[in-house]
């Protein structure tokens, strides 16, 4: 009887031991190649796994030895952020994978389908109106006109940002610990550098934009993406991160020119000596992202051509009424939302990921899941992580330190006001007129919503409210800016005065 009871128990033990052995062999075989079905297969897989691990370690060591770069995909090395004087490492997360989920790919396909509808409607309308297909991109050609002037301006700004701040840091680092009055020397040198910044990165792009009458898209390239904003923020981060190390370490040399040059092109505004790197470049992925970026530009062209220009071209010729304004705002909600999503996808996803891939820059957290935000506070933090990090570490924390840590609200409001002024500066210079719609929505309503829709709101209803506010805000911007654009054309100022330039023409233009 005892033998009968022991037999099933031994059988169960043998089955469990067999399953454990199979699981161990499968786990050990993940690093190696398949060696067949023979009895020595498990040993071969284990040996191959050890060889695979050894080869990976050897390859990583070669990358570190030859390139002087951090090991790829290793958290705790490379890119980090400063908080309270310490550096916290950023894991090399490929943030672009957020939009690679199957559900998001379906939404992406829906946007492509809408673009196809725009193209088909353009062809049909042209055939009905004129009996032939008229394919003209006059608006596109006008918006990106005078590109040689833009490239020449960019080259001047780039060479200045590359050479002058770096040489100033070298001069200061070599003399700071030897001069008799180091503080006076520092004040004179950085004062001269600040004056050069104001001249070359401040007044020069404004002069080029106004003097050469650059069209809107070319102005955006000069002012926002390439010159006045990006280079200022990058040079500031470079100096801020390099100077403290030289002060506290007299024997520490300034950063190498190659690391600073890499920083000027990589898609981040926080300077570090090294960043997480990917092992190779996927050129097909780069080409796909640039193609998507161009597709977004043509998508925006069709939206403006079909949904905005026909509505707002002759609006200034009609009698003004509140009803017409409200209807125009709601009619502009759809194209405004499309333009917002296209701007996000084109720049924060396609453009930055293309440059990150070319430079093997592994930290792709350019944005987070802002579309799931239930508060505007979360939306501001996740919409554009690249700019948010710079504002937080170099503006908010510094202001909070100046306020002696007593008022977080004052520091936050200062950041909001500064950001609103910069946004309004870009819009004013690119469109060629002053109409503080962006400043009002950002500095007034944005601050109010930041307190009302705060992080305590977790219900999905608040996500609906956030999207509703975004829709209405985009409609207001598209409507009012389009009205002002055509009012400037139909009712130009006879005599340019200060108050005439400050007063929107759409308020009085009824041609």
From TrEMBL:
<dbReference type="GO" id="GO:0015485">
    <property type="term" value="F:cholesterol binding"/>
</dbReference>
<dbReference type="GO" id="GO:0010878">
    <property type="term" value="P:cholesterol storage"/>
</dbReference>
<keyword id="KW-1133">Transmembrane helix</keyword>
<feature type="compositionally biased region" description="Basic residues">
    <location>
        <begin position="9"/>
        <end position="18"/>
    </location>
</feature>
<feature type="transmembrane region" description="Helical">
    <location>
        <begin position="285"/>
        <end position="304"/>
    </location>
</feature>
<dbReference type="GO" id="GO:0000062">
    <property type="term" value="F:fatty-acyl-CoA binding"/>
</dbReference>
<dbReference type="GO" id="GO:0033344">
    <property type="term" value="P:cholesterol efflux"/>
</dbReference>
<dbReference type="Pfam" id="PF03062">
    <property type="entry name" value="MBOAT"/>
</dbReference>
<dbReference type="GO" id="GO:0005789">
    <property type="term" value="C:endoplasmic reticulum membrane"/>
</dbReference>
<dbReference type="GO" id="GO:0005903">
    <property type="term" value="C:brush border"/>
</dbReference>
<dbReference type="InterPro" id="IPR004299">
    <property type="entry name" value="MBOAT_fam"/>
</dbReference>
<dbReference type="GO" id="GO:0034379">
    <property type="term" value="P:very-low-density lipoprotein particle assembly"/>
</dbReference>
<feature type="transmembrane region" description="Helical">
    <location>
        <begin position="325"/>
        <end position="356"/>
    </location>
</feature>
<dbReference type="GO" id="GO:0008203">
    <property type="term" value="P:cholesterol metabolic process"/>
</dbReference>
<feature type="transmembrane region" description="Helical">
    <location>
        <begin position="433"/>
        <end position="453"/>
    </location>
</feature>
<comment type="similarity">
    <text>Belongs to the membrane-bound acyltransferase family. Sterol o-acyltransferase subfamily.</text>
</comment>
<feature type="compositionally biased region" description="Acidic residues">
    <location>
        <begin position="23"/>
        <end position="34"/>
    </location>
</feature>
<keyword id="KW-0812">Transmembrane</keyword>
<keyword id="KW-0012">Acyltransferase</keyword>
<feature type="transmembrane region" description="Helical">
    <location>
        <begin position="184"/>
        <end position="210"/>
    </location>
</feature>
<dbReference type="GO" id="GO:0034736">
    <property type="term" value="F:cholesterol O-acyltransferase activity"/>
</dbReference>
<keyword id="KW-0472">Membrane</keyword>
<feature type="region of interest" description="Disordered">
    <location>
        <begin position="1"/>
        <end position="47"/>
    </location>
</feature>
<feature type="transmembrane region" description="Helical">
    <location>
        <begin position="140"/>
        <end position="163"/>
    </location>
</feature>
<dbReference type="GO" id="GO:0045797">
    <property type="term" value="P:positive regulation of intestinal cholesterol absorption"/>
</dbReference>
<keyword id="KW-0808">Transferase</keyword>
<protein>
    <submittedName>
        <fullName>Sterol O-acyltransferase 2</fullName>
    </submittedName>
</protein>
<feature type="transmembrane region" description="Helical">
    <location>
        <begin position="408"/>
        <end position="427"/>
    </location>
</feature>
<feature type="transmembrane region" description="Helical">
    <location>
        <begin position="376"/>
        <end position="396"/>
    </location>
</feature>
<keyword id="KW-0256">Endoplasmic reticulum</keyword>
<feature type="transmembrane region" description="Helical">
    <location>
        <begin position="107"/>
        <end position="128"/>
    </location>
</feature>
<dbReference type="InterPro" id="IPR014371">
    <property type="entry name" value="Oat_ACAT_DAG_ARE"/>
</dbReference>
């Amino acid at each position: 009887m005892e033998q009968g009871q022991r037999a099933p128990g031994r059988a169960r033990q043998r089955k469990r031991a067999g399953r454990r052995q199979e699981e161990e062999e499968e786990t050990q075989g993940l690093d190696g190649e398949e060696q067949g079905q023979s009895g020595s297969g498990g040993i071969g897989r284990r040996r191959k796994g050890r060889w695979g691990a050894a080869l990976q370690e050897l390859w990583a060591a070669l990358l570190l030895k030859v390139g002087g770069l951090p090991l790829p995909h290793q958290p705790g090395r490379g890119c980090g952020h400063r908080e309270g004087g310490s550096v916290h490492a950023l894991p090399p997360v490929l943030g672009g994978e957020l939009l690679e989920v199957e559900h998001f790919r379906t939404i992406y396909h829906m946007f492509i389908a809408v673009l196809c509808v725009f193209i088909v409607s353009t062809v049909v309308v042209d055939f009905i109106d004129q009996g032939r297909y008229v394919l003209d991109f006059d608006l596109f050609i006008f918006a990106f006109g005078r590109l040689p002037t833009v490239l020449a301006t960019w080259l001047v700004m780039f060479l200045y940002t590359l050479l002058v701040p770096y040489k100033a840091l070298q001069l200061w680092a070599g003399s700071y610990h030897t001069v008799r009055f180091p503080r006076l020397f520092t004040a004179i040198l950085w004062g001269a550098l600040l004056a050069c910044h104001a001249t070359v990165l401040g007044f020069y792009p404004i002069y080029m934009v106004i003097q050469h009458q650059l069209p809107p898209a070319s102005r955006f390239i000069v002012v926002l993406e390439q010159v006045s904003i990006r280079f200022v923020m990058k040079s500031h981060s470079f100096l801020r991160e390099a100077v403290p190390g030289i002060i506290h370490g007299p024997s520490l040399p300034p950063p190498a020119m190659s690391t600073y040059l890499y920083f000027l092109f990589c898609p981040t505004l926080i300077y570090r000596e090294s960043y997480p790197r990917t092992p190779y470049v996927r050129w097909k992925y780069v080409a796909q992202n640039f193609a998507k970026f161009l597709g977004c530009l043509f998508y925006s062209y069709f939206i403006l051509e079909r949904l905005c220009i026909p509505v707002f071209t002759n609006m200034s010729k009609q009698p003004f009424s509140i009803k017409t304004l409200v209807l125009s705002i709601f009619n502009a909600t759809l194209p405004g939302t499309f333009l917002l999503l296209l701007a996000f996808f084109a720049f924060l996803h396609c453009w930055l990921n293309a440059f990150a891939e070319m430079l093997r820059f592994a930290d792709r957290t350019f944005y987070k899941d802002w579309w799931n935000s239930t508060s505007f506070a979360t939306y501001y933090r996740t919409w554009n992580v690249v700019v948010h990090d710079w504002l937080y570490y170099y503006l908010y924390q510094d202001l909070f330190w100046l306020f002696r840590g007593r008022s977080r609200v004052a520091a936050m409001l200062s950041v909001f006001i500064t950001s609103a002024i910069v946004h309004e500066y870009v819009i004013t210079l690119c469109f060629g007129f002053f109409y503080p719609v962006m400043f009002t929505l950002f500095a007034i309503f944005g601050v109010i919503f930041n307190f009302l829709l705060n992080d305590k709101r977790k219900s999905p209803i608040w996500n609906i409210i956030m999207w509703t506010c975004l829709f209405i805000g985009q409609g207001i911007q598209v409507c009012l800016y389009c009205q002002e654009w055509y009012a400037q054309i139909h009712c130009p100022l006879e005599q340019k005065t200060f108050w005439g330039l400050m007063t929107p023409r759409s308020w009085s233009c009824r041609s």
